[in-house]
Amino acid sequence: MISSVSRFIHDKFAEYYEKYSHSIQPPLLIGKREFGFILLRERIMLRHKSFEDGDGLRFFLKTTVPSDVYYSSAYYERPEEEMGKKVWLGADLIFDIDADHIPTPCAKVHDTWVCTNCKAAGKGVAPEKCPSCGEQKFEEKTWTCEVCLESAKAETMKLIDILMKDFGFSSKEVSVGFSGHRGYHIHVETSEVRELDPMARKEIVDYLVGIGLETRFHGLEEQSEKRSRILAGPDLYDLGWRGRIARGTYEFLLTATREELEKAGLKKTAIDVIVKNRKMLIESWKEKGPWGKIKGIGAESWRKMAQYGVEKQSVKIDTVVTTDIHRLIRLTNTLHGKTGLKKIVVPLTGIEHFDPFRSAIAFKEGMVTVLVSDAPKFRLGEETYGPYKEQKVELPTAAALLLLCKSAAKVVE
């Protein structure tokens, strides 16, 4: 039996695909792609579908009304066959940046977990084991706020910068989309990447996240000068990881507390010197940087701070997505089953001003009365809603649908 919530969501999704399916453009070489769908009523994944053109895809969406729509990053000779018989022809290079992979303090405010065994509950990220019964299975509810998505957007901008400046991809080859939930998808579609195998893609991942990166190979080293040893380091404006190490170290020096300096592994004497001379160290970047400027901060201390700089400049991506040459990725302008928002294209120019809570709204008309069980404060468009706890409220359709998709509310008939 279909619940009133499922029926309402289905009807709204059906309304969207009936009205706006024309906005859904097929991916490049659609006939070579596998499509997958989560069926809204059955809550199962339907895979190994293919379409000859966009019209066939759009008709399927209108008649099937899935909760989520995916297509393969891969190109296949026979996309409708089972995996072993598809014949892989290549794949786009895909990156997924999700707030789930970025540590933010807001998770303690809006995310919750419940132990499936004893029903013990808490806020934030679920523990490895339930503190009450020791079980390891939890029901988790995650929400998305301004802090989450700003963090994800910052990582996205960092990634775009590396793809263009270090790898040389152009703005015509790189595209960005807001997922409709907690992050961003970055696609590189060009023949140069299409035939890369998983190991080659892992090399790209390692570069982006700074795996195995040693600062001594990027300009931070002791040099001989007039019978003495001096420490030299990279400049803020150097290319590649040299410049990123410098900028990351600068950022660390600019804001690091004593506790953070201790966490980086610095000794108390070096920390005292840094705190006392911080202003001068920051000013020194206008010349050749702070490397070796002051006695009391040795080469090892600078290496530890530079390594912290690497961590700040590395990109927080879902590494599994990029190395998976068969990955399914959400289709642009389709709805996200957990929010009712759209996956949409994000312009590369002006991305810093992009507001997903305004641009990704699919339903802009109507009001719905819902009984909200538990929901934190959230924003859609220009309005802020909640927090709610066992409350009956009348909300715009987009806000009500978000709560319904999150299983946080029921429709009041």
Describe this structure in words.
- With 413 residues, the protein is α+β, with helices and mostly antiparallel strands.
- The chain contains 14 helices and 20 strands.
- It has helices spanning 4-20, 54-64, 107-110, 146-165, 191-194, 198-209, 240-255, 258-263, 268-276, 278-283, 299-313, 319-323, 356-359, 397-405; strands at 35-39, 45-49, 66-72, 74-76, 88-91, 93-98, 112-115, 121-123, 138-141, 174-178, 183-188, 221-225, 228-232, 328-330, 344-346, 367-375, 378-380, 383-385, 388-396, 409-411.
- A four-stranded antiparallel beta sheet has the order 2-1-3-14, with no helix packed on it. A four-stranded antiparallel beta sheet has the order 6-11-10-15.
- Helix 7 (240-255) packs across helix 11 (299-313).
- The mean pLDDT is 92.
What Rg is obtained from the alpha carbons, in whole angstroms? 25 Å
Uncertain residue segments: none
Question: What is the helix content?
Answer: 25-40%
- Number-wise, the strands total 20
Mass-distribution shape: globular
Q: Structural class of the helix and strand makeup? A: alpha+beta
> What is the multimeric organization of the chains shown?
single chain
Please tally the helical runs, counting DSSP H or I stretches of 4 or more residues.
14
Strand order of the largest sheet: 2-1-3-14
How far apart lie the N and C ends?
17 Å
* Binned strand content: 15-25%
Mean pLDDT: 92
- Largest sheet properties: 4 strands, antiparallel
Features:
single chain; 413 residues; four-stranded antiparallel beta sheet; 14 helices; 33% helix; 23% strand; globular
